[in-house]
Every structure is written in C-alpha cells, then in structure tokens.
Amino acid sequence: MSRTRPNIIITGTPAVGKTSHCELLAENSGLQHLPVNQIVKEKRCHEGWNDEYKSWIVDEDKLLDTLEEDHAVSAQGGFLIDWHACDLFPESWIDLVVVLRTDSQKLYDRLKARGYGEKKLQENLDSEIMGILSEEAIEGFEGKIVVELKSDTEGDVTANVGRVEEWIRDWSKERAKGDRLENDQENIG
User: Which domains does the chain have, with CATH numbers?
Assistant: First the structure.
C-alpha cells in the first residue's frame, strides 16, 4: 500500500529555520511535525551526552526503529521530519528533501545568540559554507527530490512554505492519478 500523504525532511545546519518552517507547514498542511532532537531525548534514542558539543550521541538504529514503531513513518506518511541530517533515513521513506541554507553572517549571529561554543559554532559555519548537508542530501536521495532553499528572512520562510505547500498539492494530485490508473488496470485485467 502506498502512502497517501508525503514524508518531507526539512534539514540544514542548526539555526537555519528548520523548526520555523516545520511548524508553519504543519499548521498549513496538516502534516505532522516530527522534531527529531526532541524524539531522541524523550525516547532515549541516544548513547549518552557529548559534553564537548553539548548534544546527544544519537543511536541511529534506535531512532529509526522508534520512528517506525511510534509513527509508522514509512507506511503512513504525512510527516515533516525536522533534523540537521538526512542521510540516515531510508530513501523509500522520503518523498521530498528540503535543505535550508542561510547567509554565513546571519548563521553566525543566530548560533552566537544560542550560546554555541566557538568549536561547535565554527564547525556549523564550515558545514554551511561548504554545503555539506546539500551534498549529503544529493548523495543519499534521488536528485529530483532534493531542493535547496534560502532561509535568511521571515519573507524567505513564508515563500518557502508556500512553495512546499504547492509541492504537496502536486504530489497528492499525482498520487491520486496513479492510484486511479492502478485501479483501472486491475479492473481491466
């Protein structure tokens, strides 16, 4: 059985606006926001705390199992997966990967305001400047389902959300056409 609602990853370095995008998209589209950092913490999908980076050491297998057991992500669909990485998710689960990018000075200011230490701040800036998450997305998924969007301003967020909502509508129409075609073929045979 194919999903009737898409699964979308919203990814990017910390502070590019993933959560803002997901919250607005969830409100407007009815898709469910899955904040992976929160799930990792609440469902204990980690191997402990990294003091240097002030973050959880994610147990990827346990995280994927939890997403399947608690949300049936691969079968049900209808999720906005909010996380700084996308390469661990099976390609069969995902219909669209949105990589958010932002200006390095804006990112620096946002990370500094969050209290990031110098090492973590610099690594995230380097990742953004070098486009590491875009590369991971393109390598991990079919290029045609990966889109990179600028996230510098509130206007960008609004425009991006509108663009993803349009994609969701198009995806749903195409899926409905495919289901009708499949049903017609079964009735003929």
Answer: 7-154 (3.40.50.300)
